[in-house]
Amino acid sequence: MTEWQLTQTFTSTSGDIRWDRLGHSDRQPVVLLHGTPFSSYVWRAIARSLARDHQVFVWDMPGYGLSEKSTGQDVSLAAQGRVFTELLNHWGLEEPLVVAHDFGGAVALRAHLLHGARYRALALVDPVALAPWGSPFFRLVQEHAEVFEQLPPALHEALVREYVSSASSPGLHPAVLDRLVHPWLGDPGQAAFYRQIAQADQRWTDEIQDRYAQISIPTLICWGENDTWIPPAKGRELASLIPDAQWEPIADAGHLVQEDASAELTAALIAFLRRPH
């Protein structure tokens, strides 16, 4: 687990957050947001590539990855949007470039539209943004989270492995799958896994969905063409709602585009971020 470490800590209103910075401090800042049930680890290759020309900030949301996981913790989209705004203030970033995946897309959108967070430009990668969302499995866990928390550890691990694996189209390398699953095992990981699903309420995106036409910053929307978690049609719909949004489908990639097509996604992001904004 030593190939990706977050060395800094920030105490937020939803617990301690682990974060780190790559690249030179005098370069234009880029902030990367992960989705669920992932962590900043999914950005490792892309973060290192972007750090050649940018100052790159990575972080694990409360309840995820290396960050705090605790009983009663608020890890909802509402809380994460507030926490991201707190973190931007802590970093002293006034108008960073922001790249957000999945659940992180909703976090970035809420921070921008509801909490006044300003971005120079926004890149969304298979974001959670439009109703309806949540697979049948996701909804089943939401309704019975307390039951799932009591699964024997071996059954819980098998369930998480199968769920995470389904985010990839070509399949994940075993070592990568191990790393993605590890934060959700044992204590407090198992309870945290079901907690974040139980709190993933669609009302937090319903609250902002009618505001997407207000987004006036340059916006890129990337989408894995083989995404079975959120179909590409949702991406095209989102692109039609955000003024002048650029649509970038990624071939042969599922929902976890960072793993399935890292080179293609990196190229699309670099081209977008290098434009004058």
Please report the distance between the alpha carbons of the first and last residues.
37 Å
Q: Which oligomerization state do the chains in this entry correspond to?
A: single chain
The overall average pLDDT, rounded, is: 96
The residue fraction in helices comes out at 40-55%
What portion of the residues fall into strands of 2 or more residues? 15-25%
- Report the sheet with the most strands, covering strand number, pairing sense and barrel closure: 8 strands, mixed
The total strand number stands at 8
Label the structural class: alpha/beta
State Rg.
Answer: 17 Å
Low-confidence stretches: none
Please work out how many helical segments DSSP would assign: 12
Give me the side-by-side strand order of the main sheet. Answer: 1-2-4-3-5-6-7-8
- Basic shape: globular
Q: Can you write the helix and strand succession as a string?
A: EEEHEHEHEHHHHHHEHEHH
Q: What can you see in these coordinates?
A:
This is Alpha/beta hydrolase. It comes from Streptomyces cynarae. The chain has 277 residues and is α/β, with parallel strands linked by helices. It contains 12 helices and 8 strands. An 8-stranded mixed beta sheet has the order 1-2-4-3-5-6-7-8, with helices on both faces. Helix 3 (103-114) links the parallel strand 5 (97-101) and strand 6.
